[in-house]
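sanity check this record:
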Amino acid sequence: MTALLKGKVRKQYLETVFDSLNDPVMVITSDYCVSLMNRAAEKLLANKTGAKNDRCYTLSRGINQPCSRSGEKCPLEEVLKTGKTCKVIHSRLAGNDGSTYEISAYPVINDEGKVEEVIEVITDLTAVSLAKSLAKKMKELERSHDQLVTQHEELKKLFSQVEIAKKEWEEIMDGVLDMVVLVGNNGEILRTNEAFREFAGAPYDEIIGRDFVKLVKGQGLELQELQKKEFEIFLEAAKSTFYVRIYPMQYGKDLVPGKVITFHKITDLKIIAQELEKKNNELQFVNAEQISMMRLLEHNKDELEKAYTELKATQSQILQQEKMASIGQLAAGVAHEINNPTGFVSSNLGSLAKYIDRLREFVQFQSQLLESLPDPAAAEELAQLRKKLKIDYILEDTNDLIAESLDGIKRVKEIVSNLKAFSRVDQAEEKLADINECLENTLKIVWNELKYKATVKKEYGDLPLTRCHPQ
């Protein structure tokens, strides 16, 4: 009895554990009968507790024959055949909502080593997939949350920067001497700077939201003038004239929140302009006199420029004449300096020619005398020495050298003569001169520059003597 109680207690314990499983579990015999199922299986298959010994395909699929006969894989048959665990996917179970299920079949081996029963565990793949999808969504939400936190921090930082920029801009606008007002489309004041607040004589909080036209209407600013883009106005309260400009303030393409109105004080400029206009009238009168004086000066200037041009031309002619006179004097001096040594060389070469003739005559006489001597050896030795020293060649070449030197001296004398004739410093007065001779002398002087560059063709005519300055 005690053993039986223990057996019953153990069975109740196992059934309690069996029923506490979340996944549906069935125990099936080899003849397809369900010997045991837990509450999760009963709920899934819409079966009442205790309904046992029904066929597994009837309970799970609602059919009257095994699944294999319908062309589907039967997990019970697979385990009975192989003796190993197998898994089968079924998309249709009795009483379910159309979800997909995985049936895991496990063999129960008896003492003889045969498969006595099969335990099938049913897993809702749709629920698993949904759980995975929810987990994925949760991770995405966490990432989105982190991104939102990061963006929030960035926006917080940006808002802080915008606030700093706003305060800086307000301080800048408060430092501007011009009055600046932002007026909405309905005429209310949205923002102002310090200069306008001083003009209105009220703090910022009392000015914001007030009607701009009513605030300044008593100062001489009429409503119709707000339609202009720019105008001048005298404001009584400020005792000053202002230049007013109106700028439309636009957000985006279509939204126009209002207008920016600026007041620039031009009282000092107006006074200066009036003074300038007065001075300008005075200057116009003076200017008329200056124009008359300028015309007279222009006339005198033209006369002076004409006289200056003539003076420059005369000066150029005088300078040219002085240059030519200087060149003539220089040429005459050079000709004189060259003429003296040329005379010495010419005279010396003449004397040298005479001396050479005498030496030649002496050498010839000596040669004749040596040939008549009784000692032929001495005569032969003297003849060899004469041949070695090339005495005969020297005597013959000396005549050519002297002739060429005399010809060169003659040409130098002609050049000097032409140079003196070209300069004619001693003939400054007018006289009759041969133009052909003057041209010939000039060509001889510049021939050294012309002979390699041009060919000179002379065709002189019979010209009478011409009275001129030959130099």
In short: The first strand starts at residue 25 and ends at 29. Confidence is low (pLDDT under 50) at residues 1-5. The two ends are 175 Å apart (CA to CA). The longest helix spans residues 267-371.
